[in-house]
Amino acid sequence: MATLIDAAEYTSNEVYQIQATDPVEGAASGASFSGTGVSNQPHQQLANRTAFLKQRQDVNISNIGVLQAFMANFAGAMGVDGYLAIPLADVNRGSIVAIVQWGAIFPGGGLNDDSSYTVTWPTAFPNACVWSMATLSNSQAQKNTGKLIVEIVSFTTTAGTFRSDLIGGVVPQLPNDGFYWMAIGF
């Protein structure tokens, strides 16, 4: 028994309808429709269309697998101390996972003047921490005669050290509550 050999091609609105006046004609050398014959032509067109759709479906399944693997690289923890891992194609490093982390330090009684505070990142950076910053929290918005700032002393893949520094003036009556921090790495 001979079979039709499908070719993955799609032709919209072109499945031949056998007419009442068409003679029965099978595949043979010199038969119509490039040797397929009028009776086999619709079957061939549908077989080709099915092969085309199957080929596309196989590509889609493969792409969905790649997308699922990509999405699995997204991770995070939302909260006061949290992080977000974002896969990206870095123009210098290639495929990496960038990590943005954040948190807050609110020591009881507020920040001490000229003191160091160490923050352990919520998740360790696999390669490097490339940037960090901090900003003060002052819920009472008190005006002081001196200025308290927070400086970044150092950071590693697992932690950062920040320092409160009172610049000029007198010690404030009520200390700042604490500070918020952020770190970025990969």
What does this structure look like?
This protein is an alpha+beta fold and 186 residues long. The chain has two domains: 1-72; 75-185, Sandwich (Immunoglobulin-like), CATH 2.60.40.3940. The protein contains one helix and eight strands. The longest helix is centred in the first third of the chain and has 32 residues, at 41-72. It starts with 40 loop residues before the first helix and ends with a strand. The model has no long low-confidence stretch (mean pLDDT 87).
Which descriptors apply to this entry?
186 residues; alpha+beta; 3-stranded antiparallel beta sheet; 35% strand; rod-shaped
Helix content: 10-25%
Poorly predicted segments: none
Q: What structural category arises from helix and sheet content? A: alpha+beta
| CATH fold call of the largest domain | Immunoglobulin-like
Number of strands: 8
Helix segment tally = 1
The proportion of residues in beta strands is 25-35%
Calculate Rg over CA atoms: 34 Å
Order of helices and strands: HEEEEEEEE
CATH architecture call of the largest domain: Sandwich
Strand order of the largest sheet: 1-2-3-8-5
Distance between the termini: 62 Å
Shape: rod-shaped
Number of domains: 2
- What's the pLDDT, averaged over the residues? 87
**How many strands, what sense, and barrel or not for the largest sheet?**
5 strands, antiparallel
